[in-house]
Specification:
Helix content is 64%, strand content 0%. With 335 residues, it is mostly helical. The chain folds into two domains: 264 residues, Ribonucleotide Reductase, subunit A (Orthogonal Bundle); 31 residues, no CATH class. Helix 1 packs parallel to helix 4, helix 3 packs parallel to helix 7 and helix 3 runs antiparallel to helix 8. The two termini are 35 Å apart. The C terminus is likely disordered.
């Protein structure tokens, strides 16, 4: 069983072929930071951004600087440790590669956007020193700390703690915190700003889409094998967790937009985050709670709803091995 404390290393016969298929999908999409170009971004930072946009970017850089390292830390210490599926561990290995690639990407972002050593240091320390960024980090650490001392998930109580951690990072961290930041990037892209950051975000977005899908598939298997874990108490705890994540992300929003921004406001961002939260709840097998619509027309191509059919059509921008041009991007029509 997928949360059995007995280590299973046998890939034949496959018990969870769906995870192996997801691993193969993820391998089709490998990119490197050598393909990113932030040169035009530097010109925009110098010549085109107004103080409101510059403040927003400063906060985004502060969040991005360490966010994927936190996710990777939890991935290694908690996810990989307790999932007893060699197929899913293959996918987690690729996910860890993705997270390190994202860490490298945001290191380049900091280097290009914040050439001053003092500003660099401030960005990397933001998870401890900038209140709105620290709130997000503390939210992550709370759910990480909840299972750090668990060596074996050999009771239902320990399995519930593991499930909460998995839901936290899939639905709240990658599914809300990151998606909120992606929306700011695409808002600026819609204004013709920072094309290097937009390109990097396109690729990171696709990786995060698969990470969320993988976690939701793992949760579906856990629900099937351990249905007693998914009781009303867990349901209420998940609703409380997502409400808390929304509060945390809105504090970041108020900080990032505290100078004002035409076309983007805390009210609109709250609506968008509620829309994302509803998609996460549906993926978890729960009913919507907020019934909000996506208020951002510029997010049409990045709609979070059809995550499960992301690979029904071939994504050609950076798939390897198919001779595809990076100039063409093919999305599913539902995007």
């Amino acid at each position: 069983m997928i949360l059995s404390p007995d280590l299973d290393l046998n890939l034949r016969p496959m018990k969870y072929p769906q995870f192996f298929g997801l691993y193969k999908d993820s391998i089709k999409n490998i990119w490197t930071t050598d393909e990113l170009d932030f040169s035009m971004d530097y010109e925009h930072l110098r010549d085109k951004l107004d103080p409101r946009e510059a403040h927003l970017i400063k906060r985004l850089v502060a969040f991005f600087a360490t966010a994927d390292n936190i996710v990777a830390h939890n991935l290694v210490l908690n996810f990989y440790k307790h999932i007893n599926s060699p197929e899913y561990r293959m996918f987690l290995g690729k996910q860890l590669f993705d997270e390190m690639l994202h860490v490298e990407t945001y290191l380049l972002l900091v280097d290009n956007y914040l050439p001053d050593p003092v500003e660099k240091a401030e960005a990397f320390d933001a998870y401890r020193s900038v209140p709105s960024v620290k709130l997000k980090a503390d939210f992550c650490f709370k759910y990480m700390d909840g299972i750090n001392d668990i060596d074996r998930v050999d009771t239902d109580q320990k399995r519930r703690q593991f499930v909460e951690n998995l839901i936290c990072f899939a639905a709240c961290v990658e599914g809300l915190f990151f998606f909120g930041s992606f929306a700011y990037v695409y808002f600026l892209r819609n204004k013709g700003l920072l094309p290097g950051l937009a390109t990097a975000t396109n690729w990171v977005f696709r990786d995060e889409t698969l990470h969320i899908q993988g976690a939701m598939m793992a949760l579906a298997s856990i629900r099937q094998e351990y249905p007693q874990l998914f009781d009303e108490d867990l349901h209420q705890r998940v609703l409380k967790m997502i409400d808390e994540a929304l509060v945390v992300e809105m504090e970041f929003c108020k900080d990032a937009l505290n100078l004002g921004m035409s076309g983007m406001s805390p009210l609109l961002m709250r609506q968008y985050l509620e829309y994302c939260a509803d998609q996460r709840l549906l993926q978890l097998g729960y009913a919507k709670q907020y019934n909000s619509k996506n208020p951002f027309a510029f997010m049409v191509l990045q709609d979070v709803q059809p995550l499960t059919n992301f690979f029904e059509k071939r994504v050609t921008e950076y798939q390897k091995g198919f001779g595809a041009s990076r100039e063409a991007v093919v999305f599913n029509e539902n995007f």
